[in-house]
Amino acid sequence: MEFFRIKRDIPFMSYGRLTTAISLVTFILAVFFLATKGLNFSVEFTGGTVMEVQYPQAANLPDIRKRVEGLRLGDVQVQSLGTSRDVLIRLPSKKDKSSAQLSNEVLGALKAGGTQVDLRKVEFVGPSVGEELVSHGLTAITIVCIGIMLYLALRFEWRFAVSAIIANMHDVVIILGCFALFQWEFSLTVLAGVLAVLGYSVNESVVVFDRIRENFRKPGMRGRNTAQIIDNAITSTISRTIITHGSTEAMVLSMLLFGGPALHGFAMALTIGIVFGIYSSVLVASPIALALGVKREHMIKPVKPKEEAVV
Amino acid sequence: MNRYPLWKYLVIAVALVVSAIYTLPNFYGETPAVQVSSSRQSIPVNTDVMARVESALKQQGVQPDGMFLDGNSLKVRFHDPDAQIKARDTIQQALGDNYIIALNLLSASPEWLTRLKAHPMFLGLDLRGGVHFLLEVDMKAAIDKTMERYAGDLRRELKAKKVRYGTIKRDANGLEIQLRDAETLKATEDVVARTLPAFTQNADDSTYRLRLALKPEEVTRIQSDAVKQNITTLHNRVNELGVAEPVIQQSGPNRIVVQLPGVQDTAKAKDILGRTATLEVRMVEDDSAKVADALAGNVPTGYDLLDEMTPRGPQKILVKKDVELTGDNINDAQPGFDENGTPAVHINLDSTGAAIFRDVTAENIGRRMAMILVEKGRAEVVTAPVIRSEIGGGRVQISGSMNAAEAGDVALLLRAGSLAAPMQIVEERTIGPSLGKENIEKGFHSTLWGFAAIAVFMMIYYRMFGVISTLSLAVNLLMLVALLSMLQATLTLPGIAAIALTLGMAIDANVLINERIREELRNGVPPQSAIQAGYQHAWATILDSNVTTMIAGLALLIFGSGPVRGFAVVHCLGILTSIFSAVLVSRGFVNLWYGRRRRLTTVSIGQVWKPEQ
């Protein structure tokens, strides 16, 4: 079985203008949603208390809301979580009460009148911790970007490093944009997913760049211009790109289906990251590298005769 | 050309066998057990205790599955949870309050595995349920408290040297002393240099003002001591909860993580963690008539009959109700030795405490004073030494009739009365046991079905090479689980997600290799050379892509906290195992299968389509 029966190189680079336009539009949309709607940060970032309770039968949300609001705790959110029996309750921080007191009070209100309910999880985070997480998260993203750029600049060329990072950030911003648009909860686990995408999606660019470098060094490719060389590199790696991403996506999809609410956000971030990862590494990173003026000379400089001897 | 030297096969074989052995304990599950440990160093858990437990259980007709000593604790296995709970009550009754009896789950893996130090993976709280607290120590308060002590010391020293001074002002960074003239300034400088080496001095000769600032290393020491002391205190309190494997550790410069697996009652846990035990110093009544009265159940008014905890068991002791001194006046208590080399406890009192102590000791020479720890409304005499002489200066030494371990216990109990600095809960998480079990199940199913989907696809698409890829992916999983079990790294739900994701990403290397081999075949290269070239060309790409992924993983590890770190640890380990398995192991399989055939005309890698066909 062979899925990809491509006779001639696909002229990806000639679509450069179109793809750049598409990217730009999605990017701007993502930034727009981030700016207008903002991320729906989880309690880990904002501080406060979150409770998860489970009822033996389907939960009666309006009744729960009425009971919790009766306690006058301020801005309380009650929502169902995955199934109709699981309910998530968010409470704001209270200066004069500890979260254990808060959660006990709420549980008491829910249990009043002999209602059966099971406390599954309580999470409380102080406000200072949240600020720290945001700053650590941003530092982590910056360090990852710098580290990857340095490595790519050393292994390849600075033009490749810059275009790979731009393509990568494009993916990250789009993931964040989706989370802002649909107001999905942005938790620490989702942040881990986003950072994993950063490492994963750069793989893709690396594979293509590796091929471009190899093509530049091949004697048979002498007559072709840079755009043709990049087209050839992308075409010859496209089948592995699709298959690899398909496999990873199979795994992520399995997490999305079987992983339950705890892994839902993580799997969602990765799904978006993988889909846009394919697109951006092929149709964003390479055109940028081309626009930055990658040439054969940049790649040939460190001539290593041994590596050139291709079987 | 596709042959490995024998040593490479051996490396792979050894790696596989070791991985298999260390993965094995994860399959055995757990049995209920009761864990007996001692709350004090001076009370060892030994074969003696084991015999007592055994006979107590026999009397109650509870049949243990086995028991063994592990370090300073005794673990007793049971067949079912009912027997476990019955046994806990029985053992608690038989041994009394000096032992901590906790319910636990022990790995049911056979003994030979345990002897190889092969344990199942260490599950995080989100997988087994429990309470997690993150406490922040108030460092400013710790410094303030120390500064107060130093100010007191200085006043005392200056008085002793008869140096007249004006005021001693205390602020966030140090002390400021106003003096009268150059002479007293000089004298004060000498006193400070001799008795308070923790300060740097800065004298103003025109106004006769002396500024003292804490040295930076002293500040660091105070802060780390404060965290350490609070951790010790927390340990004591957690012991009381009867948690089998509590985690209490420093996290960052001023935070302490407390994890109590299996505990569900957060309110109680918080109550115990946040409780302040108080220490009281009261006089002992040794008048034999009164003691006899009290022992007969007729305690005189103004007296309490309390238990003194001695290594030989509790002993009754009669003390006055009047409190002479409280733990608030104790700055520090440390075990050590006296001038004769016998174990002793050194107590450091603040200036008020020192003054009171001097008066009390002057009036009561030859009598006994009791140091009483009051906790949960229950008073217990820690130690009751005889007063030999008047003690001034705030430095108290208790010695005699105790060994080094007991001195350590007494010092700990005296310190337990106070936290070095107040703490605040900044993060709290409770996970029910049912949710933990569900999380394991969900994580397991995600990985299983994802793996199955990839395996089926690879085998259909790449045939024999797909089988080999799947095998090496399985090896990857095996090695990753083995590595996690060996390192006893905490596995959390994000960690399971990382296992799944690592497998999903690891297949990339095999796809790269297989596609390369197909490409070589498409270009008309004979099979053996195609395999060789495919692996060779793919290697550089595999390395590059894994290094970049590793950079992201390491950044997560360094800057991540909580769930992010749990993800990052597994992710980084997974990258290492996947390079090994995808390149070395899969090549090993290929070489075994194809390498020996001289005239290899076709390889089973699925259909290789050529444009000219």
Automatic annotation (TrEMBL), chain A:
Q: Where, by residue number, does the polypeptide cross the bilayer?
A: 12-35, 133-153, 160-182, 188-209, 250-270, 276-294
Query: Which biological process annotations from GO are given for this protein?
Result: intracellular protein transmembrane transport; protein targeting; protein transport by the Sec complex
Family assignment from sequence similarity? Belongs to the SecD/SecF family. SecF subfamily.
Which InterPro entries is this protein grouped with?
SecD/SecF_arch_bac (IPR022813), SecD/SecF_bac (IPR022645), SecD/SecF_CS (IPR022646), SecD_SecF_C (IPR048634), SecD_SecF_C_bact (IPR055344), SecF_bac (IPR005665)
Recorded protein name is Protein-export membrane protein SecF
Entry-linked Pfam families: Sec_GG (PF07549), SecD_SecF_C (PF02355)
Q: What is its main location?
A: membrane
Q: Which terms does the record give in the GO molecular function aspect?
A: protein-transporting ATPase activity
What NCBIfam families does the annotation carry? 2A0604s01, transloc_SecF
Q: Which residues form the Protein export membrane protein SecD/SecF C-terminal domain?
A: 111-293
GO cellular component terms attached to this protein's record: plasma membrane
Protein's membrane topology: Multi-pass membrane protein
Q: Which UniProt keywords apply?
A: Cell membrane, Membrane, Protein transport, Translocation, Transmembrane, Transmembrane helix, Transport
According to its UniProt entry, the function of this protein is described as:
Part of the Sec protein translocase complex. Interacts with the SecYEG preprotein conducting channel. SecDF uses the proton motive force (PMF) to complete protein translocation after the ATP-dependent function of SecA.
Task: Note the subunit structure.
Answer: Forms a complex with SecD. Part of the essential Sec protein translocation apparatus which comprises SecA, SecYEG and auxiliary proteins SecDF-YajC and YidC.
Highest taxon above the source species: Bacteria
Q: Where in the cell is it found?
A: Cell membrane
Is the Translocase keyword given for this protein?
Answer: no
Give the residues annotated as coiled coil: none
From TrEMBL, chain B:
Q: Among its keywords, does the record have Cell membrane?
A: yes
Question: One GO BP annotation here?
Answer: protein transport by the Sec complex
Q: Which residues form the SecDF P1 head subdomain domain?
A: 313-421
Species this protein is from: Gulbenkiania indica
Taken from the record, one Pfam family name reads: SecD_SecF_C
| Localization terms from the record | Cell membrane
GO CC terms on record? plasma membrane
In the bilayer, the protein is annotated as: Multi-pass membrane protein
- Mind telling me what this protein is named? Protein translocase subunit SecD
Q: What lineage is this protein's organism placed in? A: Bacteria, Pseudomonadati, Pseudomonadota, Betaproteobacteria, Neisseriales
